[in-house]
Write a structure and sequence with these properties.
A hairpin with a 2-residue loop joins strand 2 (57-59) and strand 3. The protein has a 6-stranded antiparallel β-sheet with strand order 1-6-5-4-2-3. The N and C termini lie far apart (42 Å). It is α+β, with helices and mostly antiparallel strands. It contains 2 helices and 6 strands, in the order E-H-H-E-E-E-E-E.
Length: 107
């Protein structure tokens, strides 16, 4: 058979993996999972409810099927087939009473 030989690299040649984010500033009516997913990935709220109930969404790496689950700062949202995002901070309310969010979307 064939022998497999390891390849050794100098430490300087190995590039570190750096996570890249796109900052999003969003306003939502409430901090519910369906509203936030709809805003981040451009879905209608009804479509967001459907994907949550199908089990395609994970919050902090645990499957979430409740459409009315509330999210908080620091939560990691994984949407299978679409991507991942982190709720960076809640920045208070707008003049009309909507919640302002700062989101970091993985790119």
């Amino acid at each position: 058979g064939r022998k497999i030989q390891p390849v050794y690299y100098e430490k300087e040649k190995i590039k570190p993996f750096v996570l890249k984010f796109k900052d999003l500033n969003l306003t939502v009516n409430s901090p519910r999972i369906d509203a936030i997913i709809g805003k981040i990935w451009g879905l209608s709220r009804q479509d967001a409810v459907t994907v949550v109930s199908q089990g395609r969404v994970r919050i902090n790496y645990e499957e979430e099927t409740r459409k009315d689950a509330h999210l908080s700062a620091g939560d990691i949202i994984s949407f299978r087939g679409k991507g991942k995002a982190v709720i960076d901070a809640f920045e208070g309310e707008s003049k009309k009473g909507k919640q302002r969010l700062r989101i970091k979307k993985y790119i």
